[in-house]
Description:
Blueprint: H1 2-25, E1 57-58, E2 70-73, E3 80-83, E4 89-94, E5 100-107, E6 113-119, E7 125-130, E8 145-153, E9 163-171, H2 176-182, H3 187-196, H4 200-213, H5 218-230
Parallel strand pairs: 3-9
Antiparallel strand pairs: 1-2, 2-4, 4-7, 5-6, 5-8, 8-9
Amino acid sequence: MKRFLHGATLALAVSAIAITVPRSLAGVRTPSQPFLLSQNLNFKPPDVTAPSNRQGGTHRGSKLCPAGLSITPLVPPTNIGLTLTESPTIFVYVPQTSAEIEFTLLTENEDKVVYEKTFKLDKSGIVGVNVPATGDNKSLEVGKRYVWSFSMVCDPDDRSADLVVKGFVQRIEPQANLKNDLANPDSMTRLNVYAKNGIWYETLATLAQMRRQTPGDSALTAKWTQLLQSQGLESVATQPLVVPF
């Protein structure tokens, strides 16, 4: 009986250690260690908002844009995302269409074009457009907001018939602790750092690039789906990534 009680007491002690140790380490920052793939990607939106126009545009119907067709930009419910780079990648879901898609980036008051690009897709899916920071294009300035739009050109002779969605991007300067965390070369660690700091465009682009590098990784696919669902983008969460981006 004494031997049994001693074993039970030891088991309880080990169990208590197993429970209390993770709690005691919860507040310890260990950015040098990679996060587990099984963890959820907890994106924390920053306390910023912008005029709402995130809902996928719809059209009454035309030759290039059949009725009910819509495009959906990948942006949080606040309709604005933060970036740390002068060259962010902005994503949109495009359905099967032969229409051209026009991407435009403008200054916040929409009086100056920063960058524009026109492309076509041969299949439906999620595509990312990278804003280049070289050549004649002006880079995004820290602290400023920019307006971007995706337009589906349903009638080239009547651009008022375009399907248009808009969103915002704001570049910020990372603080010293954020820079230190992002110095970690591990992609998964950096992904989680972006997410927990509310850096939307890098969170999405980093995860998209990881999926492109290992397209058969079900854990990364689950992270992508969970991330989009957490931001109200359930309708496109399982759509495939397509090139170019």
